[in-house]
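Colleagues,

For the teaching module next term, I've prepared a clean inverse folding example: a structure given as tokens, and then the sequence designed for it. I'd like students to try predicting residues themselves before seeing the answer, so please don't circulate the second half yet.
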């Protein structure tokens, strides 16, 4: 089996996921994992699909039928690197919204060799102060050669500097 990663972007409308799922199923593919969202009227998603190697080109061609509805990019997933498995850390961030929070956090993680597996963020009105709050959940993969506690210490230092609260996940 070959693992493909599909990225999907287009104007949101009913039935987009069903159309992609039908094409994958019609080519004997298996929908493994996905992250799908609607933001400001735009549908975006990342889908991991496994399909028999001899059907990859056929599946790619079939997905082109949706070109007017969705921009779809198909990537072949790289094989997992040998060696010790990386560890993951989960961080929850909450603070007054201001420009640069995501840039600072992602740069600090990159400097430690960590890779962001998932980042969800939002802003909302602060109940008492009348300002805006920024909140995010980040799941980061720490390479086996790096101590997760060192990464956490750096993020804790940064959180104090940029004045956000940091909570470590389970």
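(Answer key — instructors only)
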């Amino acid at each position: 089996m070959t693992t493909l990663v599909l990225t999907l972007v287009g104007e949101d409308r009913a039935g987009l996921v069903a159309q992609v799922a039908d094409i994958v199923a019609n080519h004997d593919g298996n929908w493994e994992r996905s992250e799908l969202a609607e933001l400001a009227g735009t549908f975006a998603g990342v889908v991991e699909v496994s399909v028999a190697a001899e059907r990859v080109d056929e599946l790619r061609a079939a997905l082109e039928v949706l070109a007017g509805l969705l921009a779809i990019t198909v990537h072949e997933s790289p094989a997992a690197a040998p060696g010790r498995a990386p560890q993951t850390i989960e961080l929850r961030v909450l603070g007054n919204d201001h420009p640069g929070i995501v840039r600072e956090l992602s740069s600090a993680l990159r400097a430690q060799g960590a890779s962001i597996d998932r980042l969800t963020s939002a802003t909302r009105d602060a109940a008492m102060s009348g300002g805006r709050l920024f909140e995010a959940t980040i799941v980061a993969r720490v390479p086996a050669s790096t101590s997760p506690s060192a990464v956490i210490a750096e993020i804790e230092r940064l959180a104090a500097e940029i004045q956000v609260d940091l909570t470590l996940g389970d």
